[in-house]
Amino acid sequence: MSHRHDRLALLPEQVTLPPGHPWRRLGPIGAAVGAVGIVASAALGTSDPERFFFSWLVSFLFFWSLALGAFYFVLIHWAMQGGWGVVVRRIAEHVMATIPVLALLFVPVLFGMERLYPWAVPGAAAKDHLLHWKEPFLNVPFFVGRAAIYFACWSVLAWVWTRGSLSLDATGSRATAARLKRFSGPGVIVLALTQTFAAFDWIMSLEPHWYSTIFGVYVFAGSLVSGVALIALLAVLLERAGPLSDVFGAEHRHDLGKLLFAFTVFWAYIAFCQFFLIWYANIPEETVWYKVRLEGSWKAVSVLLVLGHFVVPFFYFMGRTVKRKATALAAGAVWMLLMHFLDIRWLVLPALHGAGAGFSVLDATTFLAIGGCFAGVVGWRMRRCALVPLRDPRLPESLSYESA
Amino acid sequence: MPPLGHDLPEGPTFGVLAEFATPGELFRACERVRDAGYTLWDAHTPFPVHGLDRAMGMKRSVLPWIVLAMGLTGAAAGFALQTWVHSLGYPLVISGKPFFSWPAYVPVTFELGVLFGALGAVFGMLALNQLPMHYHPLFHSARFEKVTDDSFFVSIEVRDPRFDATATRRLLEDLGARHVEMVKS
Prior knowledge:
Structural class of chain A: mainly alpha
Number of strands of chain B: 4
Order of helices and strands of chain B: EHEHHHEHE
Largest sheet of chain B: 4 strands, antiparallel
Structural class of chain B: alpha+beta
Shape of chain A: globular
Number of helices of chain A: 17
Oligomer: heterodimer
Largest interface: A-B, 10 and 11 residues
Strand content of chain A: under 5%
Order of helices and strands of chain A: HHHHHHHHHHHHHHHHH
């Protein structure tokens, strides 16, 4: 048997953060920012608990959707046996590995359920026929149980694929790679179903009279846009900072840019499908959700989302040059992350105050709290292993990849 | 009686055709022909050779711009058609909506944009490749039949400003061509 294929395509020291590298400080700095954010949010939140819980939910959902977006990226790569993106797959694995910490950060939401979700207020179902009818699904014990099931599924799946990928670094075992591939298809199905129901539970039930069957797909679309944007941004930054400069280049950027373009269009397609059917049927219990979002300053946010989350990136990412240039791609990725944050606010906050898209200091402190913990996990994991799956069977293909 | 056309005078020459045995030799030959500054020339292979477009120094196609222009035209036409029909031509109240109900126009606008873009892609590609082309002077060469089998060719046209009957021929011979011939037009 030839040893050619067992050889390391890369030396570990080529793609590992060297001692003293600034990126090694991402973990501790992230953790510190997270701790400060949690303390500040708790201190400010006591005077305005309602706003605290809504801001916390927005920040949580933003980082949660990034983690799941990266999760899809990893699992789809395995399922499709994609070669091109193996050099950035480890980054995506680090992002999805934040899930267990996000489970802890979800706990405050459970304490704020009565303030967040009208159906969770004791006695609400007795006064409201529709809530009474939905009570078998929308009740506190089942809600908490479902959240536990979602996080259990995601944590186990994230553990299987991050651990499997790390063990490949050491062994290069074809059997491990084959197993990760075999279970990736069912993994995607589990992920899609749990995310759909999590979107129903955590976001849609903020306005429990309203329902939209496409809502899960909408959240999934935003998740993938922002997940790919974060992967592209981190890859470009790590390329600039050194450790990925040998392995990540214009060809990989080009394909990440194509995915960003594709999922931007997909998001718009789903968003319009949801709007279009509700607009056409014109049934009050459905249109009320849009009515709130087309009044006051929420109308400006709605228009900004149409332009900033679709029209502008549609033309921006269309050309080849933008996708291949590091600065241009990174700028586009940052913009999409901003727009995704705005999208999450647009989904959640009208339930708090329909009147307008007001900003609160708690929005910033909760963002730092959850974002800091998120960055802490990613940074801590980056120090522990190579930034590229070293002995993945498809790494050579990824290294010599040329985007058509 | 000799075949018809047998003793007609020789017509003008199309160019010089060089045959190479391997894609690697062809690849290097293309780089040299490119560096020598030729513009009216081409490479012919039995299968796609990756990177050959760069070895030949080909510019990027204008096709994406054709598709963009056609797509935008289609979308604009679709939107304008529906606006005219519903607001001006045949203003009918449909499910209580205003005459100018733009959300209802989006699906057709999108579909016409895609349709025009796709038509632009297909017919633009055919036009840029000068297809359909029922005749090409290289078919005069008997050896050129092997381009569909196992031979790799470079042809340089006499119309090329740098073309020189002896120098061009020698260049191709020096590049390792196993056969070089002049092809009539």
